[in-house]
Amino acid sequence: LRLKRVLKHRDVSYYVFGGRRGLYGMMLHHSASNKGKAIKCVLKEMKIKEENSVIIGDGINDVPAFNLKKSYKVAMPNSVPEILKLANIVLEPEQKIGEFLSRHYGI
Asked: Of 21, 38, 73, 102, which is least packed with CB atoms within 10 Å of its CB?
């Protein structure tokens, strides 16, 4: 509660989440920024079309990036439900991201 009062008067957004074994964590960032905006900025600067980008994520902080319409979205198997809904593909539990990228994109 005290944290909410402190952050309320600053330009800070935050997510509080539960982790394994009941631990909690928090992600803080400037309220005018998120991963989706950052990716759009990088793509524009590097002159890469959004449809030529692959986004990989699993957490609630990845939702703004997964909301990019033309990017291909890959979710990890343990992703939060919001990411699973937005993903183009969800990796199998035994599947490694490096193997997936190598097989499908030659990276």
From this structure: 21
Closest CA to 48 of 74, 75, 76, 68: 68
Mean pLDDT of 56-73: 94
- The tokens describing 8, both together, are 């309320």
Q: Please give the Cα distance from 88 to 55 (Å, whole number).
A: 10
Contacts of 15 (CB under 8 A, 6+ apart): 26, 27, 60, 61
Cβ atoms within 10 Å of 74's Cβ, excluding its own: 23
CA 64 distance to own-chain centroid:
7
Q: Angle 67-4-6 (CA atoms, 0-180°, nearest 5)?
A: 115
What percentage of the chain reaches a pLDDT higher than 90?
Answer: 40
What is the reported pTM? 0.71
Residues of 82-98 as b/e, b for ≥16 C-beta within 10 angstroms? bbeebbeebbeeeeeee
